[in-house]
């Protein structure tokens, strides 16, 4: 938090003011170079001096812009980190509220059912007069009893009648 405050209150405004000062300095350097070139008898030397001033000025401005851009990026990173922490905290609070609402809803659902009056007597009642069960008698199985019913009767008769055996 202190780093964010330092960036907002000191470093970024200082970088901005340095760029504004650099603008006025560049304007003065440009006037000097122009006057120096016009008044100079040695134009080549004046041109070289102008190139030197231009290179130094551009390097200084690029350094200031780079420093200011890095400070702004650092500020944005800090703010993004704070937003992530706030989002995480908000998600935790939301989950806590959802859990509480679920508990309340389940408690309310638990109140709704009522006890059912059930009769404890036997539901299956045996008949008053029971029929006497017949005694089981074992009979042998007659496999030829159903030979005349269903498929195969015509087929079987056809082969019996013609006398063909396959």
Describe the protein's architecture and organization.
Residues 45-107 form the T-SNARE coiled-coil homology domain. One of its GO terms (cellular component) is actin-based cell projection. This is Abl interactor 2-like isoform X4. It contains three helices and no strands. The chain is elongated. The two termini are 103 Å apart. By secondary structure, it is mainly alpha-helical. The longest helix has 69 residues, at 43-111. The protein has helices spanning 2-39, 43-111, 153-162.
Task: Summarize this structure as a short list of keywords or feature phrases.
mainly alpha; 3 helices; 166 residues; single chain; 0% strand
> What is the string of SSEs from the N terminus onward?
HHH
- Which word captures the global form? elongated
Low-confidence runs: none
Task: Figure out the total of helices.
Answer: 3
Largest sheet: none
The overall strand count is 0
- Give the C-alpha Rg: 53 Å
**What percentage of the residues does DSSP assign to strands (E)?**
under 5%
Mean pLDDT over all positions: 83
Structural class: mainly alpha
Assign a percent range to the helix content: over 70%
Instruction: Report the span from N to C terminus.
Output: 103 Å
Main location: other
Keywords: Cell projection, Coiled coil, Cytoplasm, Cytoskeleton, Phosphoprotein
Protein name: Abl interactor 2-like isoform X4
Family: Belongs to the ABI family.
